[in-house]
Amino acid sequence: MKMKERNASASSAEKQAAGIAAAKLVEDGMVIGLGTGSTTAFAIAEVGRRVREENLDVLAVVTSYQAEMLAIEAGVPLTSLAEHPVLDLAIDGADQVDAKMNVIKGGGAAHTREKVVANSAIRFIVVADDSKMSEELNHFVPVEVLPYARELVKKQMIELGGVPVMRMASRKDGPVITDNGNVIMDVEFGTIDDPAELYQRLSACVGVVEHGIFLNTDEVYVGRKGGAVEIIK
Ligand SMILES: O=C[C@H](O)[C@H](O)[C@H](O)COP(=O)(O)O
């Protein structure tokens, strides 16, 4: 096996360990939120296994088409926020987590619905492998943008000191379109000294639907090398 393949499968084992550990938090009668991405996919699969093999009684709200397809495939019964506006627990992945549990999300363009779900949950759990952990946030911030306002948003991002790049599916396919019909700008801010301040500033921009900074994480389940899971609170 080549080095790159070995690293990918090691990181996948860490994601799996974190996802399975978080899925153990789900109890009978809960209504839960299911996030998007490769780490949460392991949690969804494990919740599905518990539904099928342990008769776990659960209802889930999904954050994307991807999560919906995985949940249906795994046999997790679905509901909506309209029916269940308060969730007992939400489990979701991260692109980067800092030492204070500030998180950047949106690598899969799903952060708007993810933020709605995270803010509807009594307890918000982030699942991540080792590589996502960082002393401070320095990952680009995904920003979902109303297509009509893209030039205005670009200008505002530059005024905030950011370097915005429109996320493209490919040269041929054009921009990534979110589940909400919007586009994504990935904005590089370098090291983010004050995530709470940037959070407010981005939220105040006209034409921004939602950005990928999350400040409400309750616990992080980190899959470490060797399969151990560290819980950070
Ligand atoms: O939009 C996508 C999400 O915020 C994901 O949860 C995030 O990108 C992490 O994904 P993964 O677990 O695949 O690294």
UniProtKB/TrEMBL annotation:
The keyword Cell inner membrane does not apply. GO terms for biological process: D-ribose metabolic process; pentose-phosphate shunt, non-oxidative branch. Gene3D superfamilies: 3.30.70.260, 3.40.50.1360. It comes from the Archaea. Keywords: Isomerase. InterPro entries: NagB/RpiA_transferase-like (IPR037171), Ribose5P_isomerase_typA_subgr (IPR020672), Ribose5P_isomerase_type_A (IPR004788). The active site is at residue 114. Pathway: Carbohydrate degradation; pentose phosphate pathway; D-ribose 5-phosphate from D-ribulose 5-phosphate (non-oxidative stage): step 1/1. Its EC number is 5.3.1.6. It catalyses: aldehydo-D-ribose 5-phosphate = D-ribulose 5-phosphate. Belongs to the ribose 5-phosphate isomerase family. Catalyzes the reversible conversion of ribose-5-phosphate to ribulose 5-phosphate. This is Ribose-5-phosphate isomerase A. The lineage of its organism: Archaea, Methanobacteriati, Methanobacteriota, Stenosarchaea group, Methanomicrobia.
